Amino acid sequence: MRGYEQIIDLNMKNKNVLIFGGLGFIGSNLAHRCLNLGANVVIYDNLDPNSGGNLFNVKDIKKNIQLHFHDILDFDPLVHHITSQDIIINCAASTSHPFSMREPRTDLDVNSRGVVNILDAIKRFNKDVKFIHLGTSTQLGRLIYQPADENHPEFPTDIYSANKSVSEKYVLIYSRAYGIRATVLRLSNVFGPRATINSPEFTFNNYFVGLALQNKNITVYGDGKQKRNTIYVDDAVEAIVQACMNDHGIGKTFFAVGDEHHSVAQIAESTVKYIGSGKVTYVPWPMERKVTDIGDAVISNMKFKEIFSFAPKYNLQSGLKKTAQYFKTCIEKYL
After folding, report:
1. I want to staple 174 with a disulfide (CB 3.0 to 4.6 A). Which of 119, 129, 293, 315 is the partner?
2. What is the spatial distance between Cα 288 and Cα 236, in angstroms, rounded to a whole number?
3. 232 and 312 in contact (C-beta within 8 Å)?
4. 12: helix, coil or strand?
5. Mean pLDDT computed over 156-170
6. What is the distance between the alpha carbons of residues 131 and 162, in angstroms, rounded to a whole number?
């Protein structure tokens, strides 16, 4: 495999990169990486509490980036900030599955209408920009075959996943109809530094980390045998950067996911082991969570790896160790 630096160092230098949702988990890690690669980074975020943004995520780079507090639902400021960009990455989303079921209209606005705003602004005012949109593996719903690939049917079981599925199709339509240089990357259970770890509303494995760091019980529903794909955030960020700098993915969707699959129970037990505290307890399924659970989620990343020559560098063990190192120095900023 070619090294990351060999592929992207030269091309990212002095690129103007706009990250929607750049104060959130993935967006802030992406901002750090792009800055290190020589990019001029602009973060655009409204600190929506349903999206997990945190100003501390960019404390160490705040003087080296531009930071703008706006909402992607407001079209005029959106237009103003996209015109001079070389690369736009959409990490902005209302990311809570349970919240989407309680407040479907809010989720619809952010995860669908907001994406159309971005696409329409690009079409009208910066058609040559490279655009990366982040989707999710949960768009598929319950799997019909395993491992699932990009051709798998989509029958999402919650509003968030449904709107992410719809917004992905908007991106592909704009790419094909108007020649926008867009790529969709579907991620799965990303974990690591700068994640939201204080609420079960967000990614379950990051919440497990937060509980373990506080030496609390990690609650697993049922026997926890359902399998999940996990990927450490540095690997997810590297996948995004490679998609930014490679035109072979234009107009296409990829699973940019990890190589490993673990049961929810294994993830919980490993979190306790490698964080060094906490305890796992097993309880019956709450009905409202049972009806949206998708069972096993075994996903293939072969299409992405074939085109982008990418392979994750971290496994669950090494990723959890690095995660623990980060949060133990600043845990109070995330609780």
Report:
1. 119
2. 30
3. yes
4. helix
5. 96
6. 21
Nearest Cα neighbor of 115 from 134, 137, 141 is: 134
DSSP per residue over 151-192, as a string? TS--B-SSHHHHHHHHHHHHHHHHHHHH--EEEEEEE-SEES
| Angle made by CA atoms 8, 70, 118, in degrees to the nearest 5 | 60
Q: What percent of the chain has pLDDT over 70?
A: 96
pLDDT at 25: 97
Nearest to 220 by CA among 268, 286, 188, 291: 268
pTM beyond cutoff 0.85? yes
Residues in Cβ contact with 183 at an 8 Å cutoff, skipping those fewer than 6 apart? 130, 131, 132, 133, 243, 249, 250, 251, 252, 253, 254
Looking at the predicted structure, is the pLDDT value of residue 53 above 50?
Answer: yes
**pLDDT on residue 285:** 84
Residue 244: both structure tokens together = 């930014």
Q: What does the pLDDT average to over 55-65?
A: 97
Structure tokens at 314: 């971290």
Token pair in block for residue 214: 């506080």
Alpha carbon separation from 260 to 26, 185, 300, 321 (Å, rounded) = 19, 18, 10, 16
Q: Beta partners for 182?
A: 131
Partners of residue 185 on adjacent β-strands:
134, 254
Rounded distance, CA 218 to CA 293, Å?
18
Helix, strand, or coil (residue 63): helix
CB-based burial of residue 325 (10 Å sphere; 0-12 exposed, 13-18 middle, 19+ buried)? exposed
d(CA 141, CA 231): 19
Residues 254, 304 contacting (CB under 8 angstroms): yes
Identify whether the C-beta of residue 171 lies closer than 8 Å to the C-beta of residue 117.
no
Judge contact between 285 and 221, C-beta under 8 A: yes
**Residue type, position 138, single letter:** T
